[in-house]
Amino acid sequence: MGDIPDDAADKLVVTGSKSPIPSKLRSYFKTKYSKKDVDDAHRKYSDLFKDPTGTDTKSLPFLSGMTDTILEKVQLLCAMGIYRPSLRDELYCQLCKQLSNNPSKNSIVRGWVLMYMFAGSFAPTESLAPSLNSFLSEGPPEFSDKIDWMLRRTCSVGTRTYPPSWLEFQAAKNGKPVLVPISLMNGHRMLCEVDAAMTVSEVIRNIGERLGMNELTGFSLYISLHTKISCLGNSQHRLLDAISESETFSKQMGIRENNAIWRIFFRLEYFSSWHNPEEDDAVSELVFQQIRRGIKMSEYRLENDELLLNTAAKVYCLEHADDVGHLKLEAFVNSFIPDSLLEKRPKDFFPSKVKASFYNLKLDKERPSASTIKAEIITLGKDDFDILFSRYYDVSKVVSSNQQLTEVVVGVNHKGIFVVDSTDKLKLHLDFAEIVNIVKAKHSLTLGVAQQESVVFSTNHSDDFNNLVSTFIEELTKRSTTAIAREDFTQLDGPQDANIIKGDILEMNQSVSELVGNETVTVLCKRTHKPCDIPVNLCYVVATVKPLPEDMMVRLVGQLRKGTTGNNIMEPKQQPNLQQYAKSHFRPSNENSVSKLLSKATLKKKDSEALWSYSKDGLKKPLLKRTCARDDVRKLATHCFASLQTYMSNLVCNDEVSNYVLCSEWILNPARRNKFLRDEIYCQIIKQLTNNNDKIQTDRGWSALALLTSICPPSHELYEHVRAFLKASTHPLSTICESNLQLKKKRGGCRLYSSHFLEHEMVIKQLPNVRIQLFLPNQTTQTLEVTSHTKIFDIKKSITTRLKLSSSSEYSLFFSCGDKVNCLSDRAFYFDCLSHAEVYWFKQGKRSSYSVTKNQPLLVMLKKIWVNGQPGTDPVADQIFHYSQEMPNYLRGYHNIPEDLIIKLAALVYRGQFGSETKHFSKPSALINLIIPKHFLNGKDIDSVMKAVEKQYQADVTLSQQEARSTFLQYLSQLNTYGSVFFEVKQRVVDYLPKVCLIAINYSGVHIIETENKIVVKSYNYDQIPNWAYDEQSFTLIVVEGSSTNKILLETKVGHNMDDLLMSYVGWIMNYQMRKKHGYLGDQAGESIV
Predict the structure, then answer these.
(1) Could you tell me if 44 and 99 are in contact, meaning their C-beta atoms sit under 8 angstroms apart?
(2) Which top CATH class is 281-385?
(3) Fewest CB within a 10 Å sphere: which of 72, 216, 467, 724?
(4) Fold of 875-967
(5) In what order do the strands lie in the sheet with 996-1002?
(6) Chief subcellular site (predicted)?
(7) How far apart are CA 640 and CA 288, in angstroms?
(8) Structural domain spans, the chain
(9) For the packed helices 675-689 and 631-647, what is the interaxial angle rounded to 10 degrees?
(10) In the CATH scheme, what is the homologous superfamily, with its name and number, of domain 21-164?
(11) Do the domains 21-164 and 770-840+859-863 sit in the same CATH topology, yes or no?
């Protein structure tokens, strides 16, 4: 923070000569210190504060050296909190202490930057969290707003594994978002905005949304550093942890962090078994380009020359359909055929062969469509390169009935699970259909195989391995139409010879996903070849979308007759509870008893007295073992249970607190904030709903569970138990809870705030959604239906489709309340934005417990980036957005418009507003301010001006209202301030600039305008603005003019809007420049090619 001297800048340090911060810190923690060491350290720490520069600190542990940079000091502090949970509250408290009543502005800024780094690295314990939230709410909004948002994000995804990187530290210092370039397999690149808490799966979802991809199964991120490539998968690991680790490796190699050459790629890792290349054009394009480039770089090697030539001919037909004379054939061959093959053959060999294949396949006559050719190439890649399109796991041991393997690699792809040894020899293959049971342990996964011994995989990646295999089986089961009869069945009104016998193979007329809500299904029995209507719960659905070998079906039938198949999507419904889960995860039930005497009463407890069943009594200890083991959440867990009982009207509430606040603050917030309390509260709610016959209590309990499932999902261990409980329930809210869980699993991401009052009201009234109003610039509104899972991007996409706008990327949603306007992030949930706005942007004290706040912020959609704003490019946008947003700027006189043009514009504005009605000309005093800019009337006769306008209006009689608006925009578009957002500011620093001026920000840059005559005094392109900063009262613009760098201090209260607009334009320009550069060069990197 700069509170004590730092002479690191005077020291010369060779890059790579020091140990990485994580390694150094781990060595400190491993060292055992004697009492003498501790006493000496205390003495030296005391001397350090008395004489910072003269004290020898080399032998002091946990202290950055005098040669450490500011980044290394920040990394050391963050690493302490990451690797030692007991230090987290201490670090936050020390930092809050130094920020309180600190007279140094520089120290305060550094302190808040460090707080942001802490918030992105680790969260405080439950003991400190409420106090820290209160401290942030009273801090400067330019810092506390972002830190609170980041802290909530960190709570939802957990502690990171690596200290912050140079990239994010620079972004935090400058108050800017982190923009990471992602290379796509079609040769393009794109910038993605990320933060310290963003996971790899979130980045993949954001990329998919921007590219319009409907199916993301199998896509992963890869990071390359020099000659190494690592697959990040589609996991919950943080992307910036991988970048930080790459910077550390680069530094060890003698390369500074800011010069680390890492690259991130977005590509398909494995095909899904149900992949259809003709369903999603965006996906097909990326996969096709990946295979095409992979063939060129010999990553994907075709088995013979004939297949290679036929493939080349098809791709040539696709890419050069208009090349009738084959003039581009030679260049194409050089870009498609691997270099290793080109070197072995004469120059004209492959062009002639490809040309011959072109005619042999009759591509010149049939001319297949582009989608057909792409589908054929993708199918070729799926079938021939299945080993390469796989997700791999390092497995220390594989134990099966007839073999035991050590140090092998296990791959999972659309064909199943295969095991290869160090010599790449296939040792074991399992089809998904023959897996009948899955049991996951901490470091192992056991797969039950039909009529065979179970196969046990010992690996540190058991979580991801289990998720991937379970997802394949679940999705295949949903799409399957193959089943096996569980029991004998006779259809009462059917023919006698159509009886079903246990073990019969059945072909269903519908897939499982189409049977939702149906109790029976029509099947064709393979034994009798007769149709029959059979209850769905008598069908064991086989996880396959293709015919299986006969021997595998025989083994499945034999396994089913033994009755040892695992859970299936069509299992008969039972009355589930947490009894099974409690056996391994709950504490012993007698710990809650006053007496532990072994009596018949305690040995033969009824279900109503079990720990997993409803209880009128409170809890003295939490339910889960791991919650009991944590001091910071043990007491809060019992308080949550008491609040739950109060909310379910089981106890009398002595405090005048509403049900909403009680549920939000003491049930939902702790679950959202702490992953250890999340499962505990899930178990508490389900416990109170099990064997509870009170309708009022169960209704409120289900309301709490519906809100909880909309905020955060349970852990993987508890997920299936919760889902089974929901499936068996007949309560109306159970289907909503189940839908919430499925959406959370598919889209991911925990909410950052507990449920808003509108959500609580929606659930209590059992409504499917909340209706909101969105305001457009042309003074019209759109009614939208939002749920707890609706994101800002979803709303924007819905409006774009409804209004038939050509694009959505230039538009943004805003919350407006009074004179304050704040932009909303596309990635954020709508109700999170609403809660955040009420707490930080439009502070109104605590949210009302009984009704929505009176000054509810308005949701507005505006054109933010005027990159496609030329009139005529998008006629719908011209009428709704461009005209309506330019009109106020015109009337306020912000543009420098010639006087003769103003009369024309006024006539166009009149026709655009009133059409062919001329009656408003009779009231010039009321009309003048609606069509004429303010400054134009200075010293002019109103009547003569209005006559000139009316005359011009009569001259444009052939124009319609829409045409008049378009013509108005065409005139304005010729001005260099068209499409600008204007800010009225003051400045006292630069002499050659006016004291009071207008700042106009548009696509071309930042313009400083004199307020009186509207002349542009100075303009700066975005490449002349390296940085900027803002606070509540000012905005500082750093500009480069020639060889000098100047600061322009502007007095304004809307610095946050200027910051957001500048960053949006800079981000768009950088993305545009990225797209022009090819991100795929086909370079070999070590043993891998990307």
Answers:
(1) no
(2) mainly alpha
(3) 467
(4) Acyl-CoA Binding Protein (1.20.80)
(5) 1016-1020, 1005-1010, 996-1002, 981-987, 1044-1051, 1034-1041, 1027-1030
(6) cytoplasm
(7) 53
(8) 21-164, 178-268, 281-385, 391-478, 481-511+518-542, 611-765, 770-840+859-863, 875-967, 981-1074
(9) 30
(10) MyTH4 domain (1.25.40.530)
(11) no
Strands 505-508 and 416-420: unpaired
Give the pLDDT band of residue 849 (cuts 50, 70, 90): very low
Of 377, 448, 375, 387, the C-alpha closest to 415 is: 387
Interacting residues of 83 by C-beta distance below 8 A, sequence separation 6+:
22, 25, 26, 29
Residue 1090 has pLDDT above 60, yes or no: no
Is residue 1085 over pLDDT 50? no
Q: How far apart are CA 120 and CA 194, in angstroms?
A: 12
Report whether CATH 3.40.50.1460 matches the domain 770-840+859-863: no
pLDDT tens, residue by residue, 252-299:
888 888 888 899 999 999 999 999 998 899 999 999 999 999 999 999
User: For the structural domain made of 981-1074, what CATH number should be given?
Assistant: 2.30.29.30
Residue with tokens 């417990």: 849
Q: Which pTM was predicted?
A: 0.86
DSSP assignment string, 273-299: TT--TTT-HHHHHHHHHHHHHHHHTTS
How many residues can be counted in the chain? 1090
391-478: CATH number: 2.30.29.30
> Could you tell me the two tokens for 133?
């939230």
Distance CA 890, CA 978 (A): 10
Identify the three-state secondary structure at position 603: helix
Distance separating alpha carbons of residues 741 and 709, to the nearest angstrom: 6
What is the number of other CB atoms lying within 10 angstroms of the CB of residue 1021? 12
Identify which of 352, 359, 361 has the alpha carbon closest to the alpha carbon of residue 333. Answer: 352
Alpha-carbon gap, residue 10 to 572, rounded angstroms: 74
Name which of 806, 940, 951, 776 is nearest 872 in CA terms. Answer: 806
Show Cβ contacts of residue 277 under 8 Å, excluding neighbours closer than 6 positions.
283, 284, 287, 374, 375, 378, 379
Say if residues 766 and 733 touch (Cβ distance below 8 Å): yes
Tokens for 921? 């000309």
Residue type, 808: S
Q: Identify the bridge partners of residue 627 per DSSP, sorted by sequence position.
A: none
Element (H, E) at 774: strand 770-775
pLDDT digit string (tens) for 201-221?
Answer: 999 999 998 898 988 999 999
The CATH number assigned to the domain with range 611-765 reads: 1.25.40.530
| Separation in Å, CA 115 to CA 118, 135, 365 | 5, 12, 67
753 touches 152 (CB < 8 A): yes
Quote the longest CA-to-CA distance of the chain: 105
How open is the CA angle 184-189-194, to the nearest 5 degrees? 95
DSSP label of 840: I
Radius of gyration of the chain (CA): 34
Tell me how far apart the terminal alpha carbons of the chain are, to the nearest angstrom.
Answer: 43
Q: Which ranges in 748-836 belong to alpha helices (H)?
A: 757-764, 792-803, 830-836
Cβ(359)–Cβ(313) below 8 Å: no
Per-residue buried b or exposed e for 1049-1059, using 16+ beta carbons within 10 Å of the residue's own CB = ebebebbbbbb
Euclidean distance between CA atoms 299 and 295, whole angstroms: 6
Question: 94-112: per-residue pLDDT in tens?
Answer: 999 999 999 998 999 999 9
Strands (E), 527-627: 531-535, 539-541
Q: For domain 481-511+518-542, which architecture applies?
A: Roll (2.30)
Query: For residue 318, which of 336, 298, 304 has the smallest C-alpha distance?
Result: 336
Q: Report the top-level CATH class of 178-268.
A: alpha beta
Query: How far are the Cα atoms of 172, 608, 838, 1081 from residue 192, in angstroms, in the given order?
Result: 17, 53, 28, 20
Question: What residues are paired with 1030 via a beta bridge?
Answer: 1035
Compute CA distances 458 → 63, 400, 423, 428, 437, whole Å: 40, 12, 20, 15, 17
